[in-house]
Amino acid sequence: MGCNCGQSKKSQGNIVITDEATRMMICKKCPEVNKLSVIGHVCGKLAQPTKDTCGCILKLKTKLKNQRCPQGKWWYKMQIVTKQIGKNEYICYLRDDRGMNLKAEIGKTVTEATQKLIDKITYGLYAPMNVKITS
Ligand code: SF4
Known about the structure:
Elements: E1 15-16, H1 20-28, E2 33-36, E3 40-43, H2 58-61, E4 75-76, E5 79-86, E6 89-95, E7 101-107, H3 110-122
Antiparallel strand pairs: 1-4, 2-3, 5-6, 6-7
This protein binds iron/sulfur cluster (SF4).
Iron/sulfur cluster binds near residues 27, 30, 33, 53 and 69.
């Protein structure tokens, strides 16, 4: 199909989105997307990659974990922001580079709220940070 996804220099966030539904949601809002009657959404023109589009069928591409958006839109640059919201109550947000809060956790201290959030976002990859891994 001549896909150029691996050549993207823009894929430089710190977390890659691998969830199919989230990828498709981003693609549907992208100005490059085209909807064809039989195969559904396509990135640019089918099988005609350019420097900004890959020409892929997005129903398939979004399922493949190692695929990337040629414009780097499937990456997030994240920051963790913590605020006090009450006496002995803190909230910790995972915020993307567009200022959107993606997840939040509440704790009795800054440390507890932060730890809960980090556990939540890393659990799928490794294990909770408060679990000691012994060999
Ligand atoms: S893969 Fe990237 S460039 Fe292509 S439609 Fe999706 S968000 Fe847009």
